[in-house]
Specification:
Blueprint (H helix, E strand, L loop, with lengths): L5 H8 L5 H11 L7 E5 L3 H11 L4 E5 L2 H10 L6 E4 L16
Parallel strand pairs: 1-2, 1-3
Helix pairs in contact: 1-2
Length: about 100
């Protein structure tokens, strides 16, 4: 494996025994414009605000409160976010005939 030593090298570089801690330090050291992008889609503002606050240090966070808004946002972006956290219970429910147009 060409990358077999990479985890150990990352740990040594950041002076950490744990790969997770070394990775977090690596992300913290990144310039803000190089942080991984994250899209949070949830209709509960408490959840989106909490996740944005908790993950905003490590990710470039984008928030959407609906399926429709998320699709609109994704169409405007040059690149899709690297990670998405999506509330699977968002209304409208696509299996309902009266709401299938979303």
């Amino acid at each position: 494996m060409a990358y077999a030593g990479a985890p150990r090298g990352l740990c040594e570089r950041y002076g950490e025994a744990s790969l997770e801690r070394a990775f977090l330090k690596c992300i913290e050291a990144m310039p803000e414009d190089l942080r991984p992008s994250l899209l949070i889609v949830d209709d509960d503002p408490l959840i989106t605000e909490t996740l944005s606050y908790a993950l905003g240090k490590d990710f470039e966070v984008m928030v959407s409160d609906s399926r429709h808004h998320a699709v609109s946002l994704l169409r405007q972006l040059d690149e899709a976010p690297q990670l998405a956290l999506v509330d699977l219970g968002l209304p409208p429910m696509p299996h309902r005939p009266d709401e299938a147009s979303s």
